[in-house]
Amino acid sequence: MKLYLKIWRQSDAASEGKLVDYELDNVIPHMSFLEMMDTLNEQLVLKGDRPVEFDHDCREGICGQCGMMINGQAHGPIANLTTCQLHMREFKDGDTIYVEPFRALAFPIKRDLRVDRSAFDRIIMAGGFVSVNTGQAPEANGIPITHEQAESAFDSAACIGCGACVATCKNSSAALFTSAKISHLAKLPQGKMESRKRVLSMVKQMDEENFGHCSNTEACEVECPQQISVLNIARMNWEYSLSSVLKK
Amino acid sequence: MDNKNRASTLMRKTLMAVTGLFLCFFLVIHLLGNLQLLLPAEQAKASFNSYSQLLSGNIFIKIISYVLYASIVIHCLDALIITLKNKKTAGRYAVDNRGKASKWYSRNMGILGTLILIFLVFHFRDFWYQYKFGSLPKDESGHKDLYAIVVAAYHDWWYVLFYVLSMFALGYHLLHGFYSAARSLGLYHPKYVSWVRTFGTGYSYIITIGFAIIPIYIYLTQHVLWN
């Protein structure tokens, strides 16, 4: 199939970017979206042009690197999917496809489709951990945890930090990401002990990174490749209010 | 970053939720009072006017009314601050189909809220101001005849239409606002979240239809059928 691509090209954070037109022939419907991008890049390299830069790593839907806005939707037209798991059979011969980077004030563009998502790392660094003295590994069954507790914590921990929640949010809010990271620790006894301190410092960092407010539109849950529940946001709000009131 | 000593994003949303829910509570009381207007004309007049008199003389209601004014002002100002910040932080796309992932009214609470605010200006001018500062005629029992003002206000079809459309703006605002407030306040238990959502939907329908039916009823019975 033949595709008409309009891809965001920008040489660095400081320069202005623009959509550039490309025509790509002989696209196979079984290709993943990233393989289609690889094919385009091969042609660009052969022509002596600079290839389109985009983030990718595992290509099996678990690393969260391949963030792209495809036809104005995070990770393309299918809900709950990463870009690498999107296949060209979802498009038709002769389609025009717009490819843009994930955009947010907190995600500055580094080049083309590659954005700086280190704001997420700094939110984790602010409190997304459990403080333990290292030493021998503790006995696994030392603290009893029910199956349901473990599953619930894992549902929150499944967040891969891809940034689709921020990209798809009309306010570029990081509420879903931050709340998932807060919840998966708060749901287990090891993490619960520090949960009051954690929620305050992680939310503070989230605000300092210039993410927007959460309007509860729930678009983030629809686009999240891991289907992280918006109820994590509710839990964060509850923990935050409680911790603010009880703060000494 | 310039966020030092500022209320956090979550605190701002908590403030929206608390003031919003108070306004939701007020709407219920307001609607219950207004339902007296659906009584037969003579009965409605006596009942509504004495009810208005009762409310205006009560110190408890006076305190509530100040909380109400404060809630409206805080809700609007906080919304303005939140919207300005969101405008700054939001990413903008050349092609934007993000709307497919959420309801239109959940993304346009600011616009719906502005429509409600415009409505409130007229609403306050035509009833609240008239009752408090205007020179109203007295009815047979010696109460200020607010009922006559209400009936006179809905004389024109376009004014009735303006009211009804405004109530739909309010309805959609509530449809998202009610459960969004519960979310902002931190209700995360899945069972109660779905209860609150169902309750919020029912509440929004009742408030919208309840308030929209009154001007239509008065217009039809007082101005169309009887004249």
From TrEMBL, chain A:
Q: Where is the 4Fe-4S ferredoxin-type domain?
A: 150-179
Cofactors demanded by this protein? [3Fe-4S] cluster; [2Fe-2S] cluster
Domain of life of the native organism: Bacteria
Q: Which Pfam families match?
A: Fer2_3, Fer4_8
- TM helices/strands, residue ranges: none
The protein's matches in PROSITE patterns, at most eight in alphabetical order, are given as:
2FE2S_FER_1, 4FE4S_FER_2
Give the protein family: Belongs to the succinate dehydrogenase/fumarate reductase iron-sulfur protein family.
Spell out the protein name for this chain.
Succinate dehydrogenase/fumarate reductase iron-sulfur subunit
Q: Please name the source species.
A: Pedobacter panaciterrae
Phylogenetic placement of the source organism: Bacteria, Pseudomonadati, Bacteroidota, Sphingobacteriia, Sphingobacteriales
Automatic annotation (TrEMBL), chain B:
Q: Where are the transmembrane segments?
A: 15-39, 59-84, 105-124, 157-181, 202-220
Task: Tell me which UniProt keywords the record has, alphabetically.
Answer: Membrane, Transmembrane, Transmembrane helix
Query: What top-level branch of life does the organism fall under?
Result: Bacteria
**Protein name listed in UniProt:** Succinate dehydrogenase cytochrome b subunit
Q: Which organism is it from?
A: Pedobacter panaciterrae
